[in-house]
Structure formats: C-alpha cells, structure tokens
Amino acid sequence: MSLPAHTAAVQRIYEQHHSWLHGWLRGKLHDACDAADVAHDTFVRILSARNALQILEPRDYLATVARGLVIDRYRRRAIESAYLETLATRPQATEISEEDKAVIIETLMAVDKALTGLGTRAQQIFMLSQVDGLTYQQIADRLQVSLTTVKKHMIRALTECSLIMASL
What we know:
Blueprint: H1 3-29, H2 32-49, H3 58-88, H4 98-116, H5 120-130, H6 136-143, H7 147-166
Helix pairs in contact: 1-2, 1-3, 2-3, 4-7, 5-7, 6-7
C-alpha cells in the first residue's frame, strides 16, 4: 500500500471515529486526559502499522488497539509503583534522576514483556532465582523438579530477556 493512500485512510478513520473512541475511552478510564492520551496512541499505532486500507470495522479495530494500550498503561503503572515502593524501602536514601528512573522503568517493562511470553514455570523459576536469590538447586528442591529443568527454563528466560534488552 502506498504511503499517501495509507495516510488518507488513517485521516478518514480519525475524522469519522476519533470522537467516538475518545468518548468510549473516557467511559472506561474515567479520566479525559488519559482517554485523550490513549486515543492519540491508538492512532499513532494505526499510522505506524500501515494497514489502514485493510480495516473493515474501524470501531472494532480501534477498540481492540485501545484495549491493548490500556492494559499496557496499567501494567506500566503497576511496575512503576512497585519499583518506587521498593526504592522507598531501601535503608539509605538513593537519589535517582528522572531520566534514570525512566530508563529503569523501560527496562523493567521490557523484562516483564519477555517474561510474559514464557510459561508459568519459567516465570516462577526466573523470579525465584533473580528476585529471591535462590540457587538453581534450591529452586529444583522447592519446585520438586530436576536441576536440568531449572537450568533449561533459566536459559530460556535469560535468552528472552537479552533479546528484548538488545532491542532497546
């Protein structure tokens, strides 16, 4: 599809459905500013996807994209909140610049994304190792699995994390 045709299709969808999307999001999020942000991000996502001419049901498509963005927004807020709570519990006050906080949050989001693609067992093993500090043998004993299973899942989890981090 040519870029001008795609851009024109996005503009048409925007003109016909932006008000509806903003109102729908305002009802879901109960905040006009958040609704405006997600609506904007939805159209940015559609613009970058370059498939606007293939959208047959614009409102369904917009709602699907917006739902994903809302989920991402809540996940990001939860991760940011957990990070700030953890930072606050540190015995010594640590001054971290806003730029560094943003980089840390983005990194945590990337790790979360990598772990989400793994199975529950791999996530559990990764967390026991990296967060709780257990050795592979301790994890194997606790979960009643073989040491080989723990190693296999850790390799997979660390590989996913490194692939995500390389793309940042």
